[in-house]
Specification:
By secondary structure, the protein is an alpha/beta fold. The chain has 22 helices and 27 strands. Helix 3 crosses helix 6, helix 8 (241-249) crosses helix 16 (445-459) and helix 11 (351-360) runs parallel beside helix 13 (386-394). The chain binds 6-O-phosphono-alpha-D-glucopyranose and zinc ion.
Length: 615
């Protein structure tokens, strides 16, 4: 073992296992792989965002090892030389994160990886992983991929959820074929490779450690990197930090950013305190905890309770009485920092409206302005059509994709894949509190927050004028484009077989439902959404049952692809209005909601018509 380093980022040699005898280590040959016998474990099929299971299951014998080996085998068979470049490893800090990292390093070495970048304290947000892959290092060290340890917004802890996903060289989640190959490998695995003697890495200290093989024939470099470095550096090139600072420094502007004890804490601190000079009091719940403090780190009106109350709202988004001043701006992030919620003073911005407003104002943001303006936008099918109107008005290429960030990635990389047609710069978003652009290949919570602040700053450049608020900006948007009243009802933990039967029935009835009159609406089209990727021609079927009304209103049903146990039915309701712009959402959507409950007949199929969450 040597702590010598010619590494540019070298700080100090850090091997926690200090009592490891060096002469022994040389003799042991710490880089020598051991082949450990194993056998397939059922149910290791990755979902929308990798493999997510109960933590206990992950901690059971060979569970993590099998999956990691299956990924390595798929990646190597796919043509990646894992001995060139770097493997990034980090996670959202949930329980078992630190242990899993050590296992992945040991298995990585055994599978031929020569260089690792590990987020300090094991932390890397999902967008930061993407930025690290794309931005970090001299060319010869550039990352070939990453393991992200996260179950996103799902609760963490020994009794809760754990997850792992793999991202490839473009910084985005592994494509479907790679995950299918991984799954297939898990069903036939006979052994995994591990360097059991490889020393534990002290992930709490930034620095680089070189470990030599006993005979000196090869070496491995493990570098613990500052978690925020690449991502924050990238964000600084995208936004006008001076303008944002001027806004934040105004006496009449206050903000609060709730990291919900997830991985976003260090990122919010780096940006708002270190870069933008704000007091730490603008941050709440910014110390990561391995169980997210027992909470549900999902930024929506139901789960971001504390922030929602601070902003003067209840879980339905209605105003409540608050003693004392309410901040001008509120935001929250999920466990792995890729989701965002935006709030003004007693005002909730739906993710669909947030996307539309950011697109309409994209030229306030240097990243877009400096590239000659935004070129293309995309939203997932269940996301409201608010952004469609902006795209039309601004003459942007527009795409409607199935739910899942991966569908945006193809479009962003279209120049490479699609013979010169370039859809960047590109903005995309989903109703599920995800927004982002082509600066990375994941959704990016803190990007959305900075986008809003940059837009607010541009609207408040004259400090002597009264503050233009979040609500002012949204109201102005509605009066120009109309308002897409929108809500989503979730029925969590319902029986999967029954929920599937309900979807099948609606699918089968599509033809007879088309043309039918329901209440004051006519169903212009009833179908199941199908997507043909314009870039690679791949087809995604059964992406959601749609009832498209003749006046542009929509009712949509999907089964969640990320549900922990049982099934989650999602019901999306949307009504477009050009005149009555300030009705309570529940009032605006009352009739459509009743119609939706009738169309799906969830009460008969699933025994309930009461949602567990409304967003
Ligand atoms: C993850 C994905 C998103 C997707 C969301 C909702 O967060 O990254 O792209 O929109 O899950 O998925 P679900 O299937 O549960 O509605
Ligand atoms: Zn997430």
């Amino acid at each position: 073992i040597t702590n010598k380093s010619d590494e540019s980022k070298y700080v100090s040699g850090t091997i926690a296992n200090a009592d490891l005898d060096v002469s022994d280590a040389v003799g042991l040959g710490t880089l020598k792989p051991t082949i450990v016998k194993s056998a397939p474990i059922r149910g290791q099929e990755p979902g929308t965002s990798g493999l997510r299971k109960k933590t206990k299951e992950f901690m059971s014998e060979n569970y993590l090892n099998n999956f990691v080996q299956a990924v390595f085998d798929a990646v190597i068979a796919g043509g990646t030389n894992v001995s060139e470049g770097t493997l990034v490893v980090g996670g959202d800090g949930r329980y078992y994160n630190d242990k899993a990292i050590q296992t992945i390093i040991k298995m990585g070495v055994a599978n031929g990886v020569k260089r690792f970048w590990i987020g300090k304290d094991g932390l890397l947000s999902t967008p930061a992983v993407s930025a690290t892959i794309r931005e970090r290092g001299p060319v010869w060290q550039t990352a070939f991929g990453a393991f992200i340890l996260t179950a996103s917004h799902n609760p963490g802890g020994p009794e809760e959820d754990f997850g792992i996903k793999y991202n490839t060289q473009n910084g985005g989640p592994a494509p479907e074929y790679l995950m299918q190959a991984t799954y297939s490998n898990t069903t036939s695995i006979k052994s995994y490779k591990i360097c059991a003697d490889f020393p534990e890495v002290d992930i709490t200290t930034v620095g680089s450690t070189t470990i030599l093989a006993g005979d000196g024939s090869s070496s491995v470099v493990v570098e613990v990197i500052p978690s925020t470095e690449s991502h924050v550096a990238l964000l600084k090139t995208i936004f006008d930090f001076d303008a944002i600072k001027a806004l934040l420094d105004r006496d009449d502007f206050t903000m609060v950013y709730d990291s919900m004890h997830g991985v976003n804490g260090p990122y919010s601190k780096s940006i708002f305190v270190d870069e933008l000079g704000q007091p730490e009091s603008v941050l709440t719940n910014h110390i990561p905890k391995d169980d997210f403090n027992g909470g549900h780190a999902d930024p929506n009106l139901t789960y971001a309770k504390e922030l929602v109350a601070t902003m003067g709202l209840n879980a339905k988004g209605d105003k409540i009485d608050v003693s004392g001043p309410i901040p001008s701006f509120g935001a929250a992030a999920d466990g792995d920092g890729d989701r965002n919620m935006i709030l003004g003073t007693q005002f909730f911005v739906t993710p669909s409206d947030s996307l539309a407003v950011i697109v309409a104002n994209a030229n306030c943001i240097p990243f877009f302005r400096n590239q000659g303006g935004l070129k293309a936008v995309a939203r997932s099918m269940p996301t409201s059509g608010a952004v469609d109107r902006v795209a039309k008005d601004l003459n942007l290429d527009f795409f409607e994709t199935p739910t899942g960030w991966k569908f945006f990635g193809n479009l962003m990389d279209s120049k490479v894949i699609f013979k010169g047609k370039d859809y960047t710069p590109f903005i995309c978003g989903e109703e599920s509190f995800g927004t982002g652009s082509d600066h990375v290949r994941e959704k990016d919570g803190i990007w959305a927050v900075l986008a809003w602040l940059n837009i607010l700053a541009a609207n408040n450049s004259d400090a002597s004028k009264p503050l233009v608020t979040v609500e002012d900006i949204v109201q102005k948007h509605w009066s120009k484009y109309g308002r897409n009243y929108y809500c989503r009802w979730d029925f969590e933990g319902v029986d999967k077989v029954k929920a599937t039967a309900m979807m099948d029935k609606m699918r089968a009835d599509s033809a007879t439902n088309t043309g039918r009159t329901v209440g004051s609406y006519t169903i212009a089209t009833a179908d199941d959404f199908k997507y043909i990727d314009p870039v690679d021609g791949s087809v995604a079927q059964k992406q959601g049952i749609r009832f498209l009304m003749s006046d542009g209103s929509r009712i949509i049903f999907r089964l969640s692809g990320t549900a922990g146990s049982g099934a989650t039915v999602r019901m999306y309701i949307e009504q477009y209005e050009t005149e009555k712009l300030n009705l309570p959402v529940a009032v605006a959507l009352e009739e459509l909601t009743e119609i939706a409950l009738g169309l799906c007949d969830i009460l008969t199929f699933c025994g309930t018509k009461t949602p567990t969450v409304i967003t």
